[in-house]
TrEMBL record, chain A:
Heterodimer of a small subunit (PriS) and a large subunit (PriL). [4Fe-4S] cluster binds at residues 283, 394, 405, 411. Binds 1 [4Fe-4S] cluster. It holds the Pfam family DNA_primase_lrg. Regulatory subunit of DNA primase, an RNA polymerase that catalyzes the synthesis of short RNA molecules used as primers for DNA polymerase during DNA replication. Stabilizes and modulates the activity of the small subunit, increasing the rate of DNA synthesis, and conferring RNA synthesis capability. The DNA polymerase activity may enable DNA primase to also catalyze primer extension after primer synthesis. May also play a role in DNA repair. The gene is priL. Belongs to the eukaryotic-type primase large subunit family. This is DNA primase large subunit PriL. The lineage of its organism: Archaea, Methanobacteriati, Methanobacteriota, Methanomada group, Methanobacteria. Its cofactor is [4Fe-4S] cluster. InterPro entries: DNA_primase_C (IPR058560), DNA_primase_lsu_PriL (IPR023642). Residues 274-408 form the DNA primase large subunit C-terminal domain. Keywords: 4Fe-4S, DNA replication, Iron, Iron-sulfur, Metal-binding, Primosome.
TrEMBL record, chain B:
It holds the Pfam family DNA_primase_S. RNA polymerase that catalyzes the synthesis of short RNA molecules used as primers for DNA polymerase during DNA replication. The gene is priS. Its cofactor is Mg(2+); Mn(2+). InterPro entries: DNA_primase_S (IPR002755), DNA_primase_ssu_euk/arc (IPR014052), DNA_primase_ssu_PriS (IPR023639). It comes from Methanothermobacter wolfeii. Keywords: DNA replication, DNA-directed RNA polymerase, Magnesium, Manganese, Metal-binding, Nucleotidyltransferase, Primosome, Transcription, Transferase. This is DNA primase small subunit PriS. GO terms for cellular component: DNA-directed RNA polymerase complex; primosome complex. Gene3D superfamilies: DNA primase S, domain 2, DNA primase, PRIM domain. The lineage of its organism: Archaea, Methanobacteriati, Methanobacteriota, Methanomada group, Methanobacteria. One of its GO terms (molecular function) is DNA-directed RNA polymerase activity. One of its GO terms (biological process) is DNA replication, synthesis of primer. The active site is at residues 94, 96, 271.
Amino acid sequence: MVSSLFINPFSEDARELVRNYGALDGIADTSEELQEIVKHTDGQNIDDNSLIPGSIMELAVKRLEWYLKREKREFNHGDYAYLLNPEIQEYDVLAFYVLAQATGAKFRPVSREARLVVESTGALIEERFRVLREGERDEITGQVLHELGSGDLRWIELEELLRTRKLKLTDIILDRGRVIIEGDDFMETFQDRIRDRRPERLYQLLVGSGLKETMISRMIMQRTEDYIARVHEMRSRVQPHPLILEAAELIASRVSEEMFAFTGTSVKSAGPGKLVPEAFPPCIKGAMEGVKSGSRNDAIVLLLTSFISYARLYPSIFRDRTPMKVSDLDPDLRITREEILPLIYDAAEKCEPPLFEDDPQEKLNITAKLGFGVHEEPEPENEGESRWYTPMSCEKIKIHLPDLCHPDRICARITNPLSYYNRMKWIMKSEGKGDEGGDEEKDSE
Amino acid sequence: MFEPATPQERRRYYREEWNVRDLPDFIREDIHMREFGFDHHGRGPNDRYRVFSDERRLSVFMKARFPFAAYSSVAFYRDPGRRKGWQRSELIFDVDAKDLPVRSCNCGGVCEECLSQALELVLMMVDTLRGDLGLDDIHVIYSGRGYHIRVLDPEVMEMESEVRAEILRYTAGAREPRREFSDSTGTYELEHFTIPVGYHRVFTERARHLFLHMGGDEEIEGVTKRTVKEIVKNRNLIRDGEWGVFKRRIGPRVYPRLVKGVSKINMRMVDAKVTIDLKRILRLPTSLHSKVSMICMEVKNPETFDPLDSAVPGFVYERK
C-alpha cells in the first residue's frame, strides 16, 4: 500500500525509519530485496545490470542521475521505472537522506550540486503524484499536507518559498492571512461570494489537487534545501561518515560526467562565444553608458554583471536549464578576467559618481555575483561560495531599474534581457549582419 | 495653493504651527533607531545620516533649520548614523498622484481629482493588505502629492525585497491572473472577473478602478488606441458588473492582451522602488512639502480626509 513515505521524507514515519536504520555502515551493501523490487517493477529495463541499484547509496545517486538525464533525447523511462514504484518507498527514504547528507557534507548550500538535489526532489515528487490512482492521490495529498503542518497555515510561513520564487503569492487563496487549502474551509469562507458557479467546482479548479501538490513539492524542496544547509553548517563539528563522503564523491563525478556530456556533445550553444554589443537590449546599452546614483549600484552589480557573464559564457542558460559554473566554460578564468570584468568595471567607472570611488565594496559584490564569494577578484578556490546569478527578468528590471527600461519593438515578446540578446543575434544572423548567430529563437526563462 | 513655500514661510510653519508631539506614535517610538535626512535648499536630501536620540532634539533641529524637506528612514538600525546593524523596515507603498499613468484629470501636476483617485487606490490596497494578507498596524500618510501606506506589522518588517515585491504584485494587481485551470475532468479557461475570491478578485477590482479613471488617450501595451477608446465607451458595463458583455465588446481575442497590459499599468500605479528598498528615507509625517506648501500628515479617517482642508499650512491662507 502507498503511504506518505513515497512522497514525504520529512514525515515522522520517515524520520523513525531513519532512526531505526541505525549506523550507516550498511548503505553501500547490496540488498537483494531492493534489487528484487527494482527488477519486478512494471516497465523496468533489466537488460543492463548497471541500471539496477544494488544498495541504498547507489539508489541515492540514481535519484539524481534520473533528474540529470530526464530532459535528454536519449532518456528512457524504463531505465528508472522503479523510482515511481511505491514498493521502493522505505529504501527511497533512506536514499534521500544519504543524498542530502552527502551533498551537505561536501558541497556548499548554494552549489549547483545542492541545487540539483533540491530540484530533483521536487521533480520526483511531482512525477510520483502523477502515477498514483485518484483516490489514493487525494488521501496521500491530505496526509502529507497535514504532516507538513498545513492546518491553519499562514502565508507568512511560506516566506522562504516566496523569496526563492518556488511559489507565487498570487497562486494561493488567502483570507485574513490564512492560506485556504481544505474544501470545507473554502466553502465556509467564500460560499456567500460565489454566485454563478458551484463553490465545490470552483474549489476544485482553484485549489483542488493541483495547487496542493505544487505546495507539497515546493515545501519539501524548501525543507531539503534547509536540511542540506544544516548538514553543511554542522560538518565542522560532526565528522561525516566515510560512506557519506564516498557518496558525495559519486555525486560529484556523476554531476560532472553529465555536465561534460552536456557541454561536449549535445548542445553547441552552451560554450562561450564572442560578445555582440549591437545585439544588447536597451537596458544593457543604458547600463554600459553609466548610470546616475540611485539606480547605479543595482544596474552594475545586479544587472550588468550577470548579463555580460552569461551573454559571453553561457547565453543558452534559459533554454538548456542545466546549472553550470563559470569554470566549466572558462576553466582558467581568462575570459572572465580579461573580457568580462573589464567591461563591467568600465561601465562602473562611467557612472556618476564612479561606482568604486563611492562604494569600493561593490567590487566584492560583483565577484560574488559571478559565484566566487565576497572577494576582490574571482579565484578558482573560491568558486561556489556564492551563486552565479542569472540576469534579472524584465519584470524585475521594471521594479528595480525603471529608468533603464526603454522597451523597443523586440522587447514586446521578451521576458529577460538575455533572451533579447539571443533573439537579436538570431535576427542579425538571418539578415546577414553578424557572423555569429544566436540560436535561441525559442528561449524561455 | 500648491505653490512653493518661501524660506520665511517654512520658518513660520516650523516655529509657530509644527509641534513635535504631533508626530505619529510609530515615528516617535524608537526614533533613535531611524536615520533622518534633510533637504535644505530644494535640491534633494543631501544632509543624511542624522540621528536624534529623542524627539526633543529633533524639535530643536527643525525649529532652528526649518528644512525645505525632512525625511526619516523606513529602516530601524542599531547604528542609524552609519546605516549599520539593520534590524527591520516598514513595508511601504507609494502612490504619487502626479505619476499615476492613468488618471481622469489633465492637470499635469496634482489636483483635487487625482489626489482623490490616489486615495481611492490606496484604500483598496489597504483593504487587500488587511483582508487577504491579514496584516495590521497599517498607516496611511498624505505625502503632499500623493499617499504612502506604511505597514509596521512585525510579521512583515524583517522580510527581504523579493517577498516585498511579491506582496506588491498581489496588492497592486500587477501580475497577469491565471486563466487556465484543470481538474480530473479537463482543462478550462476562466476569466478573472468570474472568480470572486483570492488574487482574481483583487485584479478585477484594480482593473475596474483603472478602466473607470481612463481618459481615453492612455497607451496600454498590447492593444490598439481603438481598443482604449472602446474601453472608455463601454465602461458603464463594468460599473454595472456586466464584465462578460464588456469582454465581448472589447473582443474575446483582444481581451487577454488587455488583461496583460492592465497588469503592467497596475505596476506603474505604485512606485515599486520604494516598496523593495529596505533603506529608503521617506517624507516625515508633520513635515512641510515645500514644493507644494502642503503638510505631510497621517490620515486618521480616510473616508472623510480632504487634504485641501486638513493639510494646508496657515501661511497659505495669508498669502496675497
